[in-house]
Amino acid sequence: MANRAGRQILCNPIPSLCCQAGIYTRGHRSAAPRLLAEPSKQKHTLEPEDAGVEAPVKCEEKRRYRRIVDRIDISVRFGVHAHFAPYQAELTVPSWGTFCVTRATADKDSVLWAEVIWEVALMNFRLELLDVDRDLLPALYALEDSSTAAARQHELLEIWGMEGFLRPMWMQTDDMDDLSAADWEVRRQAFVRWARAMVQWPGVELQWDANVLCDRREYDGFEQQVIAVYCRTFYAARSRLPTVPLARPPSLYRHLQATTCPTDEYLGAD
Q1: Can you give the pLDDT at residue 151?
Q2: N or C terminus: which one in the chain shows less Cβ crowding within 10 Å?
């Protein structure tokens, strides 16, 4: 029997080698040996130093490890390299405008919510306008001479104010956005600047007569036309509607007057 087994091994050495490698299954002697999976398709396992193989790492564990690594990376970047002091709740007092904002203040001051949402919507509108302009005029921003792109960006920043600020300076002045000004004549100048900037976009056709726009009814129609053209152009480029600025809260005046934390009068207490 030993000679017979030896002759079988010599005649067909592949099953014997497969058995030694652990890839030959019992009951399939005539079948071809099962090949090992490609390295890219093999399951990732933890291999400790003692050469043992543990169970595959679950997706939940991978996400947990990734979060830990991200936290360590953030701590090293800000704490070690940038020398930021660790967070301490008793020493950290957030502020909004000229007010000190605590959790109790935020829960009580409902006007504060309107102010924050107003600024977020306004900033999103301005950033989206600057960003979509780059998508619609790629050749202009690709020029080696960056002065043309800088002049174009300054032209866009002047739409909502001749000072050219991106952030609404509502703590320094009451006139921080000409597009939403209460005076329609101020809005007219801003909308003309907006229309003049958009006519450079491909496929945009806007025409107006400055003398005709002196009439309030004519201007109202022009204002609606400019907004409609911007929304259609933005939707064609991004497949969604743009962020629309909200009405300016009248409570913003309190940041021009107050110099300390809000009192009960500003909080709207009875």
Answers
A1: 94
A2: C
Helix (H) or strand (E) holding 21: helix 13-21
Residue 164 predicted with pLDDT over 60: yes
Domain positions in the chain are 1-28, 101-257
The CA distances from residue 164 to 153, 160, 197, 226, in Å, are 9, 8, 14, 21
What interhelical angle do 2-11 and 13-21 show, nearest 10? 90
Would the pTM of this model clear 0.85, i.e. be above it?
no
- Which two structure tokens, joined as six digits, stand for 187? 């809005």
Q: What is the pLDDT at residue 31?
A: 45
Q: Which residues have C-beta within 8 Å of that of residue 152, sequence separation ≥ 6? A: 133, 137, 140, 141
Lowest mean pLDDT among 117-121, 148-152, 191-195, 238-242: 117-121
Measured distance CA(108)–CA(22) in Å, rounded:
70
Q: Which helix (H) or strand (E) holds 95?
A: strand 95-96
The confidence score (pLDDT) of residue 38 equals 53
What does the alpha-carbon distance between residue 211 and residue 213 come to, in Å, rounded to a whole number?
5
Q: In the prediction, which pLDDT does 221 show?
A: 95
CA-based end-to-end distance of the chain = 104
Measured CA to CA, the distance from residue 192 to residue 160 in angstroms comes to: 11
d(CA 245, CA 122): 5
